Amino acid sequence: MILSDIITKKCEMCAHFIIKQKGEGGMKKSLRALIVLVLSFVMAFSSAISVSAAEPDELVLSIYRTADNIVTLNWEGGGEEAVAYNVYEQPVNGNKTKLNSTPLTGTTYTAADLTENRVHTLSVKAVNNSGDEFCESNLKKIGITQKMDIANGLKSLNDAKDNLKLPVSDLASNMEYLGPTIQDDEYHYWCYSSVTDDNGKIHLFMSRVPKATKFIPGWKTTSEIVHFVGDSSEGPFTEVGVPFSPSNLPDGQMSAHNPRIKKIDDKYVLLYIVRYNYQGAGREGSQATCMATIDELPTEPGSDTIDKWTLVPDTDDSSKLNGVITRYGVKAVNPDMFKVKNENGEDEYVLYFKGNKNPNIESAPYFLYYSTSSKLEGPYTFQGEATDSKTTIEDPSVFEWKGKYFMLTYDLGSGISGAGSVGMLIPSRTPYGFSFKDAWITAGFLPDYVNMPEGTTHAYSGQTRMERPYIVFEDDEPAYFIGTNSADVNGNKVTQSYTFKFNQLPKHEVVIDDSINGGKIEVKDNVAEAEIFDDIILNIVPDEGYVLVPGTLKISSVDAMGRPYSPQIETLDEDQYRFMMPSGDVTITAEFKKPGIVEKVEITPKSAEAMRGETQVFMASVIGNEDCSKEVTWSVEGGNGVTAISESGVLSVDAEEPAQTLTVKAVSVENPTKSAAAEIFVVEAPSNLALGLDESAYTASTHHQNAPGTVKCFPKNAFDGVKTYTGVNKIWTPKAGDTDPWIQVNFGQPTEFNSVKLYDYGQANGGRFSSVAIQVSDDGIKWDNVRAKDFVFNGDENVKECGFDTVTKQYMRVANQKTIDSSKFVHLLEVEVYNMPTVPEVEIQPQNQRAEIGEWATFSIKAAGTPEPAYQWQVSKDQGRSWEIIEAAVSSEYTTEALTIQENGGWYRCIATNKKGSSISEAAELEVFCDHVFDDDFTVDKAPSCTEEGSKSIHCNKCEEIKEQQTMPALGHDFAEYIFNNDASCEGDGTKTAQCSRCDVTDTCKAEGTATGHSFGEWIVVNEPTADAEGNQERICKNCGQKESEIIPAKGNPEPPKVDDGEDDNKNNGNKDDGNKNQGDKNSGKTNNSQSVKTGDSSNIGVWGGILVLSIVLFVAVIVRRRRRK
To answer: Looking at the domain assignment, is residue 1122 inside a domain?
Structure first.
C-alpha cells in the first residue's frame, strides 16, 4: 500500500465521523469532530509512513554523467531492511558485473572507469543484515563516449571536401562535445533555447514528448514546453515547470513545440508553435506561431505555470487558441525574432518563421519568411522570403554579433552546402534578408565530434544531423552550440539535444602584399590580426598620377579546412573598402596604373526581344588604350524594379513585367562618361506545346504506383503545368529498377519545336537524369537524337533548358542515356516543349591555327540558335585581357590577311548573336612560323657606346628571327684636346676641359703651374705704436683682395735726466758710460726700443711716488718698534 492510499483511507473514515456528528446536531460536537479530523489526518500520515517503512520499497535509481565520463548513481527506497547496496552492470557478453567490492552503506556511487565507447546498463540491489540481496532497482542506461580528434578536420567534411559548395568556419572546427543537455530517459527532448536572467541564472526552454509516445508523430499531439533552470549552460538543470502542454491548451489534441526565449523590452518573450486540428497522417491540420511574455522568470520547482504568462494577443476566449501572432496558410513554425531600428530610426520587430512554398499545401517545399510590426504584440505584416534559398530550408535561429545580423540554420539535405545536412551560418548587414552566397558551414554531424558508442539508438531514423541548431553567447562571444537529433548515445531510443563547448576562436593575420607598385593599401586602425566575421576596412592610397585598376583589389585566404577562399569586398567610398575576416590568414593585393583612355563602349546585341519570365544575355566591349579597364557596370531602365540585370550582363525579365520596352546600359568603370545602350522589346513567351493534350498523349517507360493505389506517379503528371512540388501524385516517377527511364509526348500531328525544359524534384531517395537525350520521331518507332547532353541538377537548381535546331516532328521523347542507380527514383515535376527563340549555342568551337609568314589562317565555328545567329569575330593581343572587333569578320568563318610575325600568339574568338541573346566561343590561338633564310654577315642590333656594350647577330631576311648573337665591347671615351678654362687664382692652378669625340661626356682636370701670384699695394698703418705698445699695418692684393698684415714695434721710454752730485759724478758717469755703451752695443740696429728711463714719461711718476711712500712707512715702523723695546 502506497503512502497516498493510506492517507486517503484514513481521511475517508474521519469524514464519515464528521458527518455523523453533524447529523446529531451539536455545534460543540461538530467542532470536536473537526479536531478529530485534523488529528486523524496526522495519525493517518504517521501511520502511512510507518506502514510504508515497514513494507519493502522499490529502489528508484537515477544516473548522471559529466562531460569527462564520470558517472554518478543516486538511489532511494529499499525499506528498513536495506542496510547496504550493490551496484551492477547488466550482462555484457553473458557476464553480469558487480562494480563495488564491498556493500555500500550510502545511496550514492561514482563510477569513473566504465569502458569507453559503449552503452552501459546499470542497476542497484539492496542488501539486508544477513548479507542477502533483495529488491533490485530499475535499469538505467548510460553511454560512455569517446571524443573525436578534430585537429585534422571533421570526417564528414573531409569526405565531402571535393564537393563542398560553402567554406568551413572556425566555429565548426572549434567545438568540443560535452554530452546530452538533459539526461532523462522518459522523454524525447527537442529544440533548445535559453536566456540568462539578471541574477545570472540560465533559463532553458525545450519541447519534449513522452517516450511512451513515439516522437513521430508524438510531437504533433503530445509535445509540451518545459522550463529548466541552472547555474551554467553545461548543467545540471532543475525542472521549474511545464507552462504549455496539451492539457492547458483549448483542445487536448493541440501540442506546444519548438520554443524560442528572448529578452525584449525588459520582458521575457517566449515564441512557440501550436499544432491544431491534427487528425493523423495525411490530415496534418495547421500550425501557428504564438507568443507569451512574462516580467520575471520563476526559478522554484513547479512554479512555472501557464497562468504566470501573458498570451499575446489575448482573445479573452478560453475556447480559442490565444497568443497567435502569425499564420501562413497551413504552417508558420520554428519562429525567432529581432528588435531593430528601421530605415526611419523607429523600433521594428522582425519575426522569422518557416512556411510552405504553397501556403495551403502541407507537403510543399519549406522556405523561411519574415513579417514585421511596430509593436511587439503585433499585428505583424507579412513581407516575403527571408533568404535567397531556392529549395527547402528550415530551423532559423537569429542573433546579433560583431555589429551584424546572423541566421543559423542547417542544410536539410538540399545541396546548399555540398556536405549534406550540416549547420550553416549566414552573416548579413540587414535583418531583412540573408543570402546563402555568404553562408559558412558552422557544424558537422554528431559523429564528427563524438565516437558513437556501441548500443547507440535512434528514435526515428539513423540521422545524426544537428537540427534546431542554437548558439549560446557569454560575454558577447559564442560559448556553446546545441544541436538536436534522433541519436541517443545513452541507448534509450529518445531524441536528444547535445551540448558542445566552443574553444577560443583563433585570430588570423592580415597581410598586405609588399610588392605593390603605384600606390599602397592601408588597414584602418592598423589591424594586424582578427577573428572570423570581424570587419576589416581598407584605405586605398594611389601614388600621384596613378589609379587603382578596377577589379584588382583582391583578398586571398583559406577556410578552416585549408580550401581556397576569397572574401567578398564591399565598396564604402571611392577609396575605402570593407570585408569580413574569414577563417584563415588573408593576403591583400592590388594593382595601380596610370589612368587609361576610353574611346567608346560597344554592346551586343544592340537591339533584341526578351520574353517575360525569361533571360537575355548581353556583352560589352570597352575600346581604348592599353591602360584602360575593360570592366563595365550594367543597369536596366524602364522596368518594374523586379526585372534586373546581373554583373555579368544577364537580363532576367519578370514574368509580370508590364513595360513594353526596356533599356540596358553598359557604363565604363574607367570612364563613366562612356557608355552604350541596347533597346529591348518585351514580348510574351511562346506557349507550351505539350500542355493540354489528351491523357493518352503522354506515355513513359514505366510509372510508380503503390499497392494500395494511393500513390500514382503517372506520365501525365509531368505535363500538367505544375512546376513545383505539391504532392507525390503530381510528379512522374518510373518504377524502381527502371534504370533507363524515358517519357514522351505525342503532339497528334507534325509540330515545329526547338526547346525542351525539364523541372526536376530531387528530394528524398531522389535520383537524377544523368545524361539526357532529346529524341524525335515521325511515327513513334524510329527515333533520332536532336540533342544529347549531360545534366547535373544541383540541390538549389531544378530547371534545365535544352535547345536545338528547329525540327518538325510528331513525337518528342526525353530519354536517360546512362544507367542510373536502381535504388533511386527519377522525379520529374514537369516537361515543357517550345518553339521559341533560343540563345545561340556554339556547337563547334574555333581551333588553334598554325601558318607561315605571308600565308593566311582560317578560323570557323558553328552555332545553333533560333533565329539564325549573326557573327562577329574579335582578336586579343594580350592573351584575352582585352578584345578588339575585326570589322569585316561577320560570318561563321574568318580568314586573316597575309600574316606577319606580329600576329603570332594572337587569340581569336567569335560572338554569335540573335534577338534572344549572345554566346561567345572559346578562344583559339594563332601560331605564325617562318622557314628561315639567314644573312651571310652580322647585323649590328645595338651599336656599342662609350659606356655600354652593343650586340650583333645574323638575321633572317623573312622575319625577325636572329642567331649567333654576340656582344660588342664598350668603346670607352675619346678626350682629344683640352682647353684652359681661365679659372686660375693667385695661389691656385686653374682647370682645363675636353669633350668626348663620340658622346657629350666631358672631362675636366687641373692645369698645372697656372697660379698667378699676389700683387699687393702700399702698407697702410692701421694702429700707430706707442712707447710701450706695438702697432700694426696691412696691405691688399689688387687681384684677389687678400690682406697681408705686419706688426709695428713699440716706440720705447726716453733716458732719465742726469743728477750732478759732485763727488760721485765721474764714478757714476763712468758706470753709466760703460752701461750705456754696452746697452748701445746691445741694442744697435733696433728702432724705438731703448730701455733707459725717460723722465718725460709721465706714466712712471706714480711708480716712483709709490716707492717713496712705502719707504717712509717702513722707516716709521722701524722707529716705533725700537721705542717699544726701550
So the answer is: no
